[in-house]
Amino acid sequence: MDDLSDLWRRFTRQADRQAREQLILHYAPLVKYVVARLAFKLPRSLEVEDLLGYGLIGLIEAVDRFDPERGVKFETFAACRIRGQIIDTLRSLDLLPRSARHHAREIEKAMGVLCQSLGRLPEDAEVAGYLKIGLDTYHDWLRDTGWAVVSLDQPFVADDGETYALQDSLEDTTVPSLSEQLDGRELKQQVVAAILALPEREQVMISLYYTDGLTMKEIGQVLGVSESRVSQMHAKAVLALRALMRSRHETDSVVHRRRQANAPAYAAVP
Q1: Could you tell me the domains of the chain?
Q2: Which residue pairs, CB below 8 angstroms and at least 24 apart, start in 186-195?
Q3: pLDDT higher than 50, residue 263
Q4: Hey, which of 1, 154, 205, 220 has its CA 20 to 30 A from 182?
Q5: If we measure between CA atoms, which residue out of 149, 166, 144, 29 comes closest to residue 88?
Q6: pTM of this structure
């Protein structure tokens, strides 16, 4: 195969369709890698071949959208798009357990309310108390959210109606900015602040999974815990990040509306 840089040059500058096909073939194994990471937490009734097909669509989209002039790493950019395409397709086909998705929404909502009232991330017992369930049941819900593919790739709808994925704003310079949708610098600052509010082990887990590309099993070996425990930590951390971001956006929106009405505005939750 021709040199990759030459293939990218021919495709992006000359719209060479043969170069595009060669790039897709070269990066096709990346689809298998992403599917392997997702498969263990998806219902066994799903066919791997179908997941590979959904992921290939994401890969093609990534190739078409990638700009090598930015000097970023294609694999990281593409992995995000492949995961997102698989998850979006499964949701559209309604192939993910509804109970798990319901539990994920309830936990995120509870965390958001408690973040507002407490001014910090709530403890497990506080979330369970708000949901009026036992702590063991809460931990079961967290484990089950793995079936809902809780991820930073999951679309997040801000108070102003804008939609984006938190993965796109992590402090990983290999991921393109979202300047077309939101101010990239401000969004990154908000996400970094939210991540720093997480317990240290969960910060490490997020970094190992999304930035370093380790599997849940490999992260478990690093942290000295089981793979299922890492999955639970991941679900909790992502739901907490999304709740924190939603809380910040809602607070900022209220402040903005009060300023427009010349009413006193209160400080945002730190």
Answers
A1: 4-92 (1.10.1740.10), 98-260 (1.20.140)
A2: 190/245, 190/248, 191/166, 191/241, 191/245, 194/240, 194/241, 194/244, 194/245, 194/248, 195/170, 195/241
A3: no
A4: 205
A5: 149
A6: 0.55
